[in-house]
Amino acid sequence: MSTQTETIRRNTVPQIANRKGGDPIVSLTSYHAHTAAIVDKYADFILVGDSLGMVMHGMDSTVGVPLDLMIMHGKAVVRGTQKALIVVDMPFGTYEESPNIAFRNAAKIMKETSCGAIKLEGGARMADTIKFLTERGIPVMAHIGLTPQSSHVMGGFKTQGRDEDTWAAHIADAHAVTNAGAFSVVLEGMVEPLASKITKEIAIPTIGIGASADCDGQILVLEDMLGMNPWTPKFVKVYGSLGPMIEDSVKRYASDVKDRSFPSEDEVYR
Ligand code: KIV
Questions:
Q1: I need a labelling partner for 34 at 20 to 30 A (CA). Which of 59, 80, 191, 202 fits?
Q2: pLDDT at 1
Q3: pLDDT band at 2 (very low <50, low <70, confident <90, very high)
Q4: What topology is assigned to 13-241 in CATH?
Q5: Whose CA is nearest to atom 1 of ligand 1?
């Protein structure tokens, strides 16, 4: 009798990069092992985004997210998944200063979480760092358009490219990260025709969030699309209503506690 153990292989960076212009890339954020295990069944890659600072930890922006928090959530998501490529965000202040510092912190993320790639924000200004990292074995997903870590400079979370005069700079960013070796690029909060134009012009997959249906893939923050947050950005299609479901369950539980309406110990341990 022979047995065969089926090995599930994770999606790789080249597999995602090769999806340019092909079957749309499905991706979502996840921050915990249990939700990631569900997302893993359908997503090509999972992003452990620094949005976790706002979504999970109640921060006003992503600026305060520390590296160790990203590593902790990154480990949980890697543990909970088998198939999707796991990409972990580099938080603000851990990569902008110099390519050397970026390498040190990106290597720490990859060693400690066993993720497959990192993501960082910024276009032309980050090109040297992206090149430095990719040449040294660290796959980089870039992120341009609305870059939340720069929200203080941008004056808030504002859709980019409303003024056509700004398009050239965004297009230059897209080409700069491509030429520097990024394997894909997130286009966030960007007017539709600009995101569509960038997608047609560059050779790496674009991943849209509030950008264009023409992008090579899409990403959403899981908790937003599940309806867990009282406020969600206008572009988010909400697929669930987990917030109200959780509230209803907690309310019924509280009511059972007050009514002493619980099974007795002998019923439970019978
Ligand atoms: O941190 C995050 O969740 C992100 C996505 C919005 C792309 O960067």
A1: 59
A2: 46
A3: very low
A4: TIM Barrel (3.20.20)
A5: 49
Q: What percent of the chain has pLDDT over 70?
A: 96
pLDDT at 6: 58
Is the distance from the beta carbon of residue 173 to the nearest atom of ligand 1 less than 6 Å? no
The answer to whether the CB of 49 falls within 8 A of the CB of 57 is: no
Centre of ligand 1 from the C-alpha of residue 171, in Å = 20
State which ligand 1 atom lies nearest to the alpha carbon of 186.
7
- Spot the catalytic one: 188, 201, 265, 267: 188
Give per-residue pLDDT as tens, 165-183.
999 999 999 999 999 999 9
Q: 97 an active-site residue?
A: no
Distance 265 CA to ligand 1 centre (A): 46
Quick check: CB of 121 below 6 Å from ligand 1?
no
Residue 4 clears pLDDT 70, i.e. is over it: no
Q: Give me the mean pLDDT over the 84-107 stretch.
A: 98
Find out whether the beta carbon of 219 lies less than 6 Å from any atom of ligand 1: yes
